[in-house]
Every structure is written in C-alpha cells, then in structure tokens.
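JOB MANIFEST
job_type = single_chain_structure
chain_count = 1
residues = 266
[input]
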Amino acid sequence: MAWVIAGVVSAVVADLSLRRALGRAIGQARPRIREIITLAKVSIPLAGTVLIKFAVLGVVTLAASTTGTRDTAAHAVLTTLTGFMMVTSLSIASAALPDVARATDAAGARRAHRGAVLLAIAGTLVVAGLLLGFGENLLVLFSDDAAVRDQVLGLLPLMLLASALDAAQAVQGMGLTALKRSSFSLMFLAIGYGLLLLAAVPVAGTWGITGLWTAMAVANGLLVVMQGTGFHRHSAKLGAPGTSAETVHPPTPDTCTKPPAAPGRS
C-alpha cells in the first residue's frame, strides 16, 4: 500500500509540475507513435541499466549471506548507508544534467557534466563526513550488536570509496542519457556488473564481505572509466561539422509538437 500511495503522489506531483511548466494539460491528445518510439529508444535502455544493477546487487547480497550471520548483518547496514549516499548525490547532481542536454557544443556539455560529477561527489563526501564523524552513534540505530557495528566501522572507508565511485559512474551514465546515448550506458553497465556477477560468489567464499565490497569498488571504478570515455566520445559530436543537431539530440515531444512560425512573425 505504501508503494501504491507513493506512486500516486509522484504521478500527481509530476503532472502538476508539467502543467505549470508547459502551461497546458498533458496526456489528453491522441498518442503520437513516432515520438513514443523516439523516447523509447532512450528510456528502455535506461530502464535496463536499473534492472541489471539491482539484479546484480541482489546476487551480491545473496553471496554475502553465505559468509555468516554477523557478516550478512554488516553487509545489510552498509548497503542501507550506501542507499542514503546515492540518493543524496544523485538528487544534487541531476539538477545540472538539463544543461548537458541543452548544450550545443562539446565544451558546454562537458562543462555541465563536470559540474554534475563534482556535485555528486561533493554530496557523497558530505554524507561520508557525517558517517565518519558520528558513525558510532548513528550505527546504534541500525544494530544493537557491538560486533556488527565494529565490522561496519571497519569496512566504512571501503564502502565510502565504492559509493563515491558509484555516484561518479551513475552521473556519467546520466550524462550519456542526456546525449540520448543510454544504450551505450546499458552496454557499459552490462560489462562492469556482469563481471561483478561472475565474481560475487567466489569472492565471498574466499575473502568474505571485505572482498565483496572491494569487488564492488573495482566494478564501479571500471564503470567510471568506461562511462566517462563514452561521454567524452559522444559529446565530441556536438557541434561537429557535418553533424546535425538531431543526430545527437533527436527531436523531443516538445520540439515535435511546436507549430512552425507563421511567415513574417517572430
């Protein structure tokens, strides 16, 4: 029921915000198949990245459960803290991504993207500072087992490294989505998290959850490199001679539905 209420509230807020931004009601005209297909080319790969990531993280959690009760509990606490950090960093960084989508040249797109990455890392560091400064007191809220809290504290620096790299790679992927190249982000994530999927169970059996969090940090670091290289490559096409604007930025519903200006009018 909570999920249903949250979904309804999100849909209502989004609808009201779009009405205010566009100045008219939405969703009341006939479906425009061409625009739906254009949007699907971006949104379906984007949904695929989320599916792959959480499926692999589920396997990582399953692998952690084979290491022992206290290790499993410590992994659960670390995963929860990572979720807080991820929401904070991406919420801050997403505000800068429309500038990437609107950029008309490579320099502008990279400047906006660099700002988004720095904002995401800054958000991660703020939460990391709070965890490092007040970790002992905060962890009491998650577990009353001193051994679990000690293990979480010991793995906290490694978790913070993995989270910072995860925030950076996620923003890199969002930058590719802003360039309408989410299929490349899907491919990179499939490679990075595919390797993590293959390594999770053997690593957990050999090195425990320390090895698992090290593997996650390595996978996220690999994704930072791949996603960053992909963004640099595709952003270079902005403003390139012989490349039309629609090649990198296909028409959006807003631009497709705007009627042409009448002759003699601005």
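[summary]
The chain has nine helices and no strands.
Residues 179 and 248 are 6 Å apart (CA to CA).
exit_status = 0
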